Amino acid sequence: MVVTRTEEHAHHGASRGTGQGLGQAEAGTGSQTRPGGSAPDVADVSRGLDALETPGSSARRRLDPQSVLLPVAALAVVIVAWQLYVMTGHRRGDLVPGPFDVAATAWELWLTGAFWEAVSTSLGRGLTGFALSILIATPVGLIIAQVRLLRQAFGPLISGLQVLPSVAWVPAAIIWFGLTDATVYFVIFMGAIPSVVNGLIAGVRQVPPQHHRVGRVLGAGRWQMTTRILLPAILPSYVGGLRQGWAFSWRSLMAAEIIATGGSMGYGLGTLLDQGRALADMSVVLTAVLIILLVGVIVELLVFAPIERRLLKTRGLLER
User: Fold this and answer.
1) Among 253, 298, 235, which Cα is nearest to 132's?
2) Residues 43/6, Cβ–Cβ less than 8 Å
3) Could you list the residue ranges that cross the membrane (predicted)?
4) Which end of the chain has fewer beta carbons closer than 10 Å to its terminal beta carbon, N or C?
């Protein structure tokens, strides 16, 4: 009876994903029983294995204080060192303003409305251009990644476009589109699209061949193979490509706004930065640099870091 019950549990365990190995082990060692004489409950053990595969599901979610305190402490150290350097008097105050001077300039820009005008203009352009880049790059990248001939033909060109500084496209964009928002969006496309496409190509290359064989055995068509098998498998690489694409698009936007000024370009952070350079006002220059840095950090912390953390947790690669 014990052997019969064990075989029944082994049969159920074999029909489950994570319990398969254990079910086979039970079937091969049917004489292993609990000290009390009853066979091990394969279903309970399988549930335990499932819990081990997804450690984040049972762990209590809580904020690690070090993840907040350490960056704040590092920022405080940088500000103190900056102020101490200014107090030594090695440089003139107008060339190297202190943190309090920069804070005063930022407050003045806030009161005049220039702060929010610059941030909203640049952030709106950046998000719009990046969203359009995703819409273009995702289908193009999936097609190139799945067709070997296209991958071999366009792969080196896309890699070359990724390493090409997007600021090199600004003069051509000004000639083609003039001093309009189209110039900015074109430069953003040339910075973001190659990164997203390369992320998809790299992700498809890392998918094990067994995934494709299983899809073909199950009768999956090209659309089902892409949406049900490839996309879930390449999601980490895709998110990595999106993160890199956003970084390139933000840098490209600043380069375009600094060089292409006037016309209908509006007043963005790059314009503020160039205005500070033209007036030789280092407080304005440093304020613009810090705002650009702050926006980049906020987008990283609020958008990409949570997505990456969730992906790693669902794959059992991150405990908390």
Assistant:
1) 253
2) no
3) 68-85, 126-145, 157-178, 184-204, 253-273, 285-305
4) N
Domain boundaries, the chain: 116-315
Give residues with Cβ within 8 angstroms of 266, minimum separation 6: 121, 181
DSSP state of 60: P
User: Which helix (DSSP H) or strand (DSSP E) does residue 308 occupy?
Assistant: helix 305-314
What phi, psi does 20 have (nearest 5°)?
Answer: -65, -50
Distance CA 20, CA 156 (A): 43
Hey, what's the torsion of the CAs at 113, 116, 121, 124, to 10 degrees? -150
Give alpha helix (H) positions in the chain.
2-14, 20-28, 42-53, 55-58, 65-88, 99-112, 114-146, 148-163, 170-177, 181-205, 209-217, 222-224, 231-259, 269-278, 282-299, 305-314
Residue type for position 127? L
Q: Determine the Cα–Cα distance for residues 219 and 224; give it in Å rounded to an integer.
A: 9
Tens of pLDDT, residue by residue over 57-108, are: 444 556 667 777 888 888 889 989 988 888 887 777 778 898 999 999 999 9
Question: Domain spanning 116-315: which superfamily?
Answer: MetI-like (1.10.3720.10)
